[in-house]
Recover the amino acids of this structure.
């Protein structure tokens, strides 16, 4: 069984037992999070597609950890003008493990 959920403005295809990184969620490590924005639920040839979400569809996940990903650096430069700026960004994430998918 698999599902397509929406979290953090992105869509993710998930299966039970899968571990994935999402945009940072407000939940403690070790707690359970439910995703109600389920866009598709499929099992073999039986597929339920929502408009936009499947009614009664829910995906439960356990929060494993919070962290920051690798640093992405950027450089802004204007030639011959003595203008140079350098910076970086580390995106925060939440790592979750999918427990179960409930179809509507």
């Amino acid at each position: 069984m698999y599902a397509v959920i929406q979290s953090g403005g992105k869509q993710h295809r998930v299966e039970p037992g899968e571990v994935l990184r999402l945009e940072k969620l407000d939940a403690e490590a070790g707690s359970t999070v439910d995703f109600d924005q389920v866009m598709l639920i499929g099992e073999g040839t039986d597929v339920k597609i929502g408009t936009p979400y499947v009614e009664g569809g829910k995906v439960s996940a356990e929060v494993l950890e919070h962290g920051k990903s690798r640093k992405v650096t950027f450089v802004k430069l204007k030639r011959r003008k003595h203008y140079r700026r350098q910076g970086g960004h580390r995106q925060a994430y939440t790592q979750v493990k999918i427990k179960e998918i409930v179809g509507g």
In short: The two ends are 13 Å apart (CA to CA). The chain has one domain: 2-102. Residues 2-102 form one domain. The chain is about 0% helix and 65% strand.
